[in-house]
Model the fold of this input.
Amino acid sequence: MPRMLDVSDEVRAEIGDEEADRLLADENTPGSYDCTSCRTQGDSAQERTSTVLFVGDETAVLAFAHASCLPSQVVQVTEEQLRGAVRSIGGVAPGGGAPGEPHKAAPEQAVLGVTSGLVLIEGELHPALVVEPTTPIVRPGSASSTDEFLPLLIEQRFLPMTELTSVPPVLHGWSVLLAMGQLHAVLQPGANGGQPVAWWQAHQPLQVTDSWRAAANKHQQVLMFAAPVGSIGRQPREDLLRESLDKAAAQGKLVAAALPLAGT
Done:
């Protein structure tokens, strides 16, 4: 039975015409697959399916997704992220979850805690990432000990939030990389308009809940909230996380932006 497969020009250029033609001729195309975005099963004989090529520094992995979840595309990832993705495809569940573990952030190399959760705004649930450093963030190159975490983000066009009554505007150039059904990184614009670079990157891909992933696919964006050290804490439940966000906002200690999903 013919496969309903999409191979974009971008993917074809990476894998070559011969391999692309083999895929379209069903030679290397699986019938059923786990969608690399929503992680539910798909069937390329029954529904349009996208080829998604994850390219690392030295290797590449070809995956499949529902065309309604992701278009056929090439996603640039680090070799470490690619290894994590291969482990995920192989059924080995990496560590992580919500609340997230502390991870390194670039370029300041400060330790950030990242928590995922759903936030109710204007009667609708939105996927959110809450970022809080474990120590004060000083301005790079500065001898001052003043915590500059929020001013640095405001300079990047994150908006101060005094209350969570509306969705913050989209911050173009920034994005959230959700691949293989897991959270890989928060990307920021590269220097001089170059390729996006990781502002925060998971040591291992972080698992998110099915409801969080479904909300991200629905809105095609993730809300990122950031607060100084000691403002949020590692809350075990989403209702407690929301209470902490509301408190930080009321105290003028919260900035936010809506970040598009990377590659979509």
